[in-house]
Every structure is written in C-alpha cells, then in structure tokens.
C-alpha cells in the first residue's frame, strides 16, 4: 500500500518526495480531476494526500469520493503557505454529524 500526493506547489512535493512519497503538482480543476481519476484506478495506492488549495478547487468531487469510496483514503494536508484550520473543519463535520455544537 502506497501514499500519493496531489499538491499545488513544488515545495510540498519535494518535501514529500524526500520522505518517499510520489506525487504530482497540479493547478487547475481539470488537472486535479484527472490526477484523482488516475490515483483512484490504481489499486496499490491506499492514501492520497491533498493540499488544502487542491481540495478547494473541487470540494464537491472530493467530498463525494470521501463518502463513496472505501479506498483510497483522501486526506487534506496544509502546505507551508496555507493557513488551513483543519481542527475547525473537523469540529464542523462532527457537529453536523451528531447535531451538537462542540
């Protein structure tokens, strides 16, 4: 089982590459969708890391894949330029799921 990165900048890709994670740098929605389709069709890839900016290019598709697919696991990661508030996003997801504000 492998990790794969879909990033919007070369710095994140290079850092992950040093850790042994292959990946691609894309910028446009159609490039992101093509990269996702390629990754999803590869049975060796278990986890796809995606920078926040990439997820924001097609949040509807990423959300649909997260709900519909059991593999690969799509994980949003902040990059060095991002100010992602992942904790707040997780709180919002939990609040919507259980109906209680955290």
From TrEMBL:
Coiled coil spans: none
Family classification: Belongs to the V-ATPase F subunit family.
Organism in which the protein naturally occurs: Holdemania massiliensis
Keywords: Ion transport, Transport
UniProt-recorded Gene Ontology molecular function terms: proton-transporting ATPase activity, rotational mechanism
SUPFAM superfamilies according to UniProt: AtpF-like
Name assigned to this protein: ATP synthase subunit F
InterPro entries: ATPase_V1-cplx_f_g_su, ATPase_V1_fsu_sf
């Amino acid at each position: 089982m492998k990790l794969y990165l879909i990033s919007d900048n070369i710095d994140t890709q290079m850092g992950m590459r040093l850790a042994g994670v292959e990946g691609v740098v894309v910028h446009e929605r159609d490039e992101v969708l093509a990269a996702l389709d390629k990754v999803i069709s590869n049975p060796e890839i278990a986890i796809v890391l995606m920078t926040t900016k990439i997820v924001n290019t097609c949040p509807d598709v990423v959300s649909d894949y997260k709900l519909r697919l059991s593999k690969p696991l799509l994980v949003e990661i902040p990059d060095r330029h991002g100010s992602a508030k992942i904790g707040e996003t997780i709180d919002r997801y939990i609040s919507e799921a259980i109906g209680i504000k955290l």
